[in-house]
Amino acid sequence: MTRPVFEFEFTAAPEHIDELGHVNNAVWVQWIQTIAVAHWHSVCDPTHHDAYFWVVVRHEIDYLRAAYEGDRIIGRTWVGEAPKGARFDRLVEFVGPDGKTCVRARTSWAIIDRTSGRPIRVPPEVIAPFV
């Protein structure tokens, strides 16, 4: 099943560069969170935003090629298959200016009820806008 893809552009700034001269691995993790949160805010019902938040429970990241200062990076994200209880997977890829994938990731997120502060089963109405 094809899922809608959300895109977000990043630019590798001097503070993103490590001693090897390329975007630091920790920056890619920050960008994974940035694009996921931007996607959530762009699609979710405002009442869902007020009722729930998401936390990362697992990252799987493949670092495929370097990106350098000044590179414009296109981040793409979409949701995975059906949620498992409170967890829902999100897939992310970052493409460099040459059109080649720099980083690919699968991240598991858990939905938390803001009132109770506890994980809940992902409600179908929360999933609907993403699929």
From TrEMBL:
Keyword Metal-binding belongs to the record: no
Presence of keyword Kinase: no
Key words, A-Z: Hydrolase
InterPro entries named among the record's database cross-references: 4-hydroxybenzoyl-CoA_TE (IPR050563), HotDog_dom_sf (IPR029069)
One Pfam family this sequence matches: 4HBT_2
Gene3D superfamilies for this protein: Hotdog Thioesterase
Superkingdom of the organism of origin: Bacteria
Protein known as: Acyl-CoA thioesterase
Species per Swiss-Prot/TrEMBL record: Sphingomonas sediminicola
